[in-house]
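User: Modeling request: complex.
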Amino acid sequence: MSGASEVLLRVYRYNPSNSGKPHYQNYRVPTFRGMTVLDALIYIKENLDPTLSIRYSCRMASCGSCGMTINGLPRLACFTQISELKSKYILVQPLRNLPVIKDLVADLDEFFNKHRLVKPYLIRRDVEEQENPREQYRQSDEELERYVQFAYCIKCALCYSACPVVSTDKNFPGPQALAQLYRYYIDTRDEASEERIRIVNNAHGIWRCHFADSCSQVCPKGVDPALAIQLMRREMMFGPSRG
Amino acid sequence: MVSERTLMLIHYLTGLGILVAGAVHIGTVFLTAPVKENLEFSGSPFSVMGVYRNAILAASLEALLLFVAFHAFNGLRVILIELYQSPRWERAVTWILTVAALLVVIYGTRTILIAYSIAQGVA
Ligand code: SF4
Ligand code: FES
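Assistant: Request completed. Predicted assembly structure:
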């Protein structure tokens, strides 16, 4: 961090099992060049307060488990350097729009259930053949291009946490699930277009997106769920464009 | 049960319709003559009754009424079902707003028809 050797982390603390109220705790953390918010939290856990709960695994923006709200925005703690925040004061909270298990660990069940709802896998009419394929399902570069961007999703739930519709309508599938719906819908190997449309063509489905675009703003992998939602709505409104 | 896609398609189309019929309405009320003459009850082809005398313009008012009624009440439905979720609430919102929209359309159509029939005699 330029010139600074210490930051103040103000961390959300909550432990439902001892029926304590949510509160904030401050920690002073010495910084080093390239230090991430996750490094700072691990420092706290190892040196200042072992009771702090965090979730992480890969430390390289691949597993999607360290999502939290950092200085007001949903971000991956392992992918956010202290220096980029340009502040000596860092507010760390759990992801919004999800229940809290403890401290900075949000409960992702609801998020994964919605992901499951859109059937995020290839569906073929001939199940027998799909189980024992006789040859590769070939695709051209152009066909791959249509969905590959959306296949980079690491299911970190940052977009879900940023979505204003999810915060008011708990039945809305959310940007991640809708983007994955489009990812499989537009895949030429998939044969369940009608079924996929049926899943989200309802009063709390895809039409409820306000196109706030906050999902795409916060996605750490450049997935652009808002684009997927608009493309899917176009498909549903004007009919399939898939060749 | 009308699908959500169909409702939203009509929602977008009525939005466009409001732009067109609304422009025709504003145009005929304010831009076809000096404002004073436009807002006169009768006496010229551009007065209030003069506009109603023209069947096409009267029909465009009816279209505007239909477009606004659908667009506004469907918009309200979308807001209300996003505000709170329960199957009972959703059913109630849908029914109450459908009836309210129908009442608005019936009352507005009645007004347009009365004005149209008066206009045939006075303008
Ligand atoms: S779309 Fe982006 S922000 Fe949303 S879950 Fe996937 S990777 Fe995370
Ligand atoms: S620890 Fe895996 S994405 Fe951050």
